[in-house]
Amino acid sequence: MPEKVTVSLIKADVGSIAGHSRPHPRMMEVASNVLAKGVKDGLLNDYYVTRCGDDIQLLMTHRKGENNKEVHELSWNAFMTAAGEAKKMHLYAAGQDLLSDAFSGNVRGQGPGAAEMEFEERPTEPMLVFMADKCGPSAYSLPVSKIFMDPFTTTGLVIDPRAHLGYDIEVVDVVDHKKVLMTSPAELYDILALLGDTTRYAVKRVIHRTLGIAAVISTEKLNILAGKYVGKDDPVMLVRCQSGLPAVGEVLQPFAFPQLVAGWMRGSHYGAWYPCGVDKSDPSYHDGPPRVCALGIQITNGKIQGAEPPGSKPGDHEPVDYFAGEEWDIVRNKAMEISIYMRGHGPFMPGIVSPEELEYTTRPEILKKLEPRMKPLD
Ligand code: F6R
Ligand code: MG
Ligand code: MG
Question: Does residue 343 have its Cβ closer than 6 Å to ligand 1?
Answer without folding.
Answer: no
